[in-house]
Structure formats: structure tokens, C-alpha cells
Write a structure and sequence with these properties.
The chain is an alpha+beta fold and 241 residues long. 32% of the residues lie in helices and 29% in strands. The protein is built from 6 helices and 10 strands; from the N terminus they run ββββααβββαβαββαα. A hairpin with a 5-residue loop joins β1 and β2.
Length: 241
């Protein structure tokens, strides 16, 4: 434990620390999908059509906006969001069809602390539970740690959103606690569950993602052979054996 001259415990020195830059790339390219900086002209129509397949509007329940009944109102929202740098929105593009099927963003971008969050994740039914969905999260995560040099990657969600909490854990995020009465969304109380991945944990996760995304890990109908969580556990065991 580090102590100062007064005998008080203090945090360790962060060696070679330099503030990471603000994310600004326009495209993150993967095997199955790519992420393009959100813009209304290229993405709004396809996103609206894809989101419309959520007949009950369940994809909007935990978001502070939506659902959008008309494409005009959705287009306005996309135009507004595409001009922001925090949150910085990306559209998730299916490389086979070249159509946008969902969005995600970086937000609460704090270079001075080396901290950045992923959020505003809204995947249409056509994107949910697909290889593309996982790869999109991997591409954003890799960009943060490898290209930009952030120390902390956060995931926050409504504490009642079991799907989001399960996704965070599957992707390697660690649960840190719940902030009670953290906000009011659509007139209702929101308790917020916090998750994170640290730069020191990234090497294990990068290896797990690369093994999971390998074509040999999927059957001819696209079903996974080994889960991402199993790869993560196996790699951690290999490194500590």
C-alpha cells in the first residue's frame, strides 16, 4: 500500500499517463458489421424500418426518448443526435446488406480521468442476439482501449433492465453497484446499475472476443459452438495456471 509523508494511504502512481483523445473516427470496421458515425441521410430510413419490427415498442422502454410513430420525427431525432460529440452516436451496419440496424454511442467522455461510457444502445430485432451485435460492442471497446488509450470503460443501465444487465456481464463488464433514485426517465424513477471494464482486464477480453468471433466458432446455421463467457473463463484459467 502506498502512503504519503503523513502516513495516509494513497493511490499508486499511474506510469506514463497521458490523457487519451476524444473519439472522432467516422468508421469502425469488422468482419460482420461496421460502425459509421450516425447521419440522417445514410441511416435514418433504414433504422426506422428496422426499429418498426419491434411491434410492441419494447426496444424503447428504458430509453429517455421514443418510440417514434413517424419517420419524420425519427429523422429529426437522428439529425439532432448526429450533430453531438457527447454522446457520439454510431450506426451499426450489416456488411452483407449495407443497412443500418441499430445505434450505440460513446458518452460521458472524460479524457482527464481516462474514462468513457458506452450507452444509448438501441438494437432493432434484426440485430439483437446476432454475431454483429457482439462484434459492434467489441469494435467500440477495442477502439477505446487500443486506439485511444482509456483506462475505464463504463456501462450503465436502468436497474430493472435485466436484458441490459445480462448483456453487460456477458461482454465482460463487472457490476459495481446501483445508484438509487439516480434519475427520472419518462416520468418514472430510475435506479441505475453501474458496470465497468478496466484497461488491465482488456487483454483477456480481447483474446476471448477474437476466439468467439472466429468463423470456426459457428455452425453453418450461425449458432455459436462456444459461448463468449466460456472463452473468457477458459482464458483466465490459462493465464493463471
Amino acid at each position: 500500500m502506498c502512503k504519503n509523508s503523513l502516513g495516509q494511504p494513497i493511490g499508486p502512481i499511474v506510469p506514463n499517463w497521458a490523457e487519451p483523445r476524444h473519439p472522432d473516427v467516422k468508421t469502425l470496421d469488422g468482419q460482420y458489421c461496421k460502425l459509421e458515425k450516425l447521419n440522417a441521410q445514410d441511416h435514418a430510413k433504414n433504422l426506422f424500418v428496422a426499429n418498426s419490427r419491434s411491434k410492441g415498442g419494447e426496444i424503447w422502454t428504458y430509453l429517455p426518448y421514443g418510440p417514434f410513430a413517424q419517420i419524420e420525427s425519427y429523422q429529426e431525432w437522428v439529425e439532432e443526435m448526429s450533430e453531438k460529440t457527447d454522446p457520439l452516436f454510431y450506426a451499426v451496419i450489416d456488411k452483407k446488406t449495407q443497412k443500418a440496424l441499430g445505434v450505440a454511442s460513446y458518452l460521458r467522455i472524460t479524457p482527464a480521468a481516462g474514462s468513457i461510457e458506452v450507452g444509448h444502445i438501441n438494437f432493432s430485432p434484426a440485430l439483437q442476439r446476432t454475431v454483429m451485435a457482439t462484434e459492434a460492442m467489441y469494435l467500440m471497446m477495442r477502439h477505446v482501449f487500443v486506439d485511444l488509450g482509456y483506462r475505464r470503460y463504463e456501462w450503465k443501465c436502468n436497474a430493472l433492465n435485466e436484458g441490459s444487465k445480462s448483456a453487460a456481464k456477458r461482454l465482460g463488464f463487472s457490476y459495481e453497484g446501483t445508484f438509487r433514485q439516480a434519475g427520472i426517465v419518462k416520468g418514472r424513477n430510475r435506479d441505475t446499475a453501474w458496470f465497468s471494464i478496466l484497461d488491465t482486464e482488456w487483454p483477456v477480453m480481447e483474446l476471448a472476443f477474437s476466439r468467439w468471433l472466429n468463423e470456426g466458432n459457428f455452425t453453418s446455421d450461425g449458432s455459436q459452438i462456444t459461448s463468449l463467457s466460456d472463452f473468457t473463463q477458459k482464458i483466465r484459467h490459462e493465464l493463471t495456471a
